[in-house]
Amino acid sequence: xxxxxxxxxxxxxxxxxxxxxxxxxxxxxxxxxxxxxxxxxxxxxxxxxxxxxxxxxxxxxxxxxxxxxxxxxxxxxxxxxxxxxxxxxxxxxxxxxxxxxxxxxxxxxxxxxx
Length: 114
Prior knowledge:
Layout: E1 2-6, E2 9-11, E3 17-24, E4 33-38, E5 44-50, E6 57-59, E7 67-72, E8 77-82, E9 91-97, E10 103-104, E11 108-112
Parallel strand pairs: 2-11
Antiparallel strand pairs: 1-3, 3-8, 4-5, 4-9, 5-6, 7-8, 9-10, 9-11
């Protein structure tokens, strides 16, 4: 099982970024998926989740209306579209498999700064 995130980088406040996570080694389309982040010096924070078929999504309050989680089951890829980013969105973002959060990617760094 492997989860490989990409798309992080430096972005200005108010800007946009799209994170991707390519999954392999399991039947991606069968699994609930998540994005979890960790800001510098802070603990892990759940950001968003999506059902296996993509029909239902969930978001933490601080990103509602700004972030969109989606997936392409044909391409085994999970996405997080980030709009109107804020300094408090600065974190390492992890792609995580399943409701039990058992498998994590290596993370991709997002830095929001002017």
